[in-house]
Amino acid sequence: MKKLMLIVSALLLTVSLAACGNPSSSNQPAANTSTGTSPSGSGSTSAEPVNLTFWHAMSGTNEEVIKQVAATYNETIGKEKGITITPVFQGSYGDLMKKVRAAVQAKDFKNLPDLVQSPASDVAVMKSIPSIVWAQDLIGKDSSFQIDDLEPNAVQTFSFQNKIVGIPFANSTILLYYNKSMFADAGLDASKPPATIAELGEMAARLTDKPSKQWGFILTPELYQMSSWIGMQGGFLGNNESGRADTMTAVEFDKTGAMKNFLTEWKKAVDLGGVQTGADANVKEEFAAGKLAMFVDSTAALRGVLNSVGDKFEVGTAFYPKVNASDKGGVAVGGSALYVMDRGDQAKIDAAWDYIKYSSAPETQLIWHQGTGYFPVNRKTYDLPAMNEHLEKNPLFKTAIDQLHSSSPQVQEPMSAVNNEISTFLKEEILSFVLNKKDIDTAVSDMAAKANKALEEYNRANK
Prior knowledge:
Strands 1, 2, 3, 4, 7 and 13 form a six-stranded mixed beta sheet that branches. Strand 5 (159-160) and strand 6 (163-164) form a beta hairpin. The chain folds into two domains: 2-172 and 335-383, Periplasmic binding protein-like II (D-Maltodextrin-Binding Protein, domain 2); 174-331 and 409-461, Periplasmic binding protein-like II (D-Maltodextrin-Binding Protein, domain 2, 3-Layer(aba) Sandwich), CATH 3.40.190.10. The chain is an alpha/beta fold. The protein has 21 helices and 13 strands. The protein starts with a helix and ends with a helix. It is globular.
């Protein structure tokens, strides 16, 4: 056992070096994190070695952490139970989901993975795949797993009609990133970033120097940003609780006034001259180069942003700006969950569930959080002394956690199989209004009509 612990410690050190974090060896998931009990409750372990393929969409630093988490499992719990996890990068979430859909449609079970990481935007697709073993069914057969330990916002993200489809793993919220040095140079208080879209527009104008191609803020809003900007106002983007109470058949933002409220504030901000919109730009590269003062992105970008900026300037993180100062809903949870696929082998289903339990354990989530910036999905991670030490030394990571805990679980991305199409419609119509090609009522009406048509056509074809 002493030799085993030395192997675990060495692997965790590799994780910390790859992720530029500093988790101690005591943070490793202990061998009793997973009970070894199969979902059927038999309590048996596999008699034969079980090799699992795990499709994921993590690249760069995040992929290194994915690999090392799997390696630690393979050398500890996996070695004891005869389970080996092989992570396989499948490109972007979009690329991964195309491969999953193609294999499912062709009934090519041989080439499906045993485990798959899928984004929050594709829960509607995942729940409709016959090969997916719903997490709710696995939990119901395994008393060792406590769903209440997980963040309720993240659980809601991957649930349909109060039944959880996949287990949250790499979850995030949207954040505001800003250059504190540029704030100081512009005479702005770096300790007071913009709290509303109105303040964002005002500060962006002061931070912009167009002759030197320096912008205060760059964004062309689409569904990712709008899920929070609509939800924080207190309603849902779509009917049936944006598709979680029942199938989403229509949008609601045109009826509640939420989209019109947003467009009004957004256009005021853009018209002040410090917001670039409608143009393609790599905001993280522009930010790291000192040519962009503020941008919004996932918390999962934090580690990469800090690595890119280095010691060139001080980075700040802040809550996502509100549409109106009175908005209380908070932001939507993004990121992904892990799903078990049924390929006709119960031993592989049991083994995949064992690895999912390991991945969502407090200690594993600490390593994952430190290495990537995704917030821990397991609330017991905050009971670990190493987590508190980490947040004290790295307060930028705490911003996302505080924002998550002040957000309503009801604020979510819509659960719709046509989210990509809806995102395109929102982006096009928002831009048309901001560029004075359409009046506000026409833009709202047109985006709603296009979204509703896409929903109707998909639902009719996929009863």
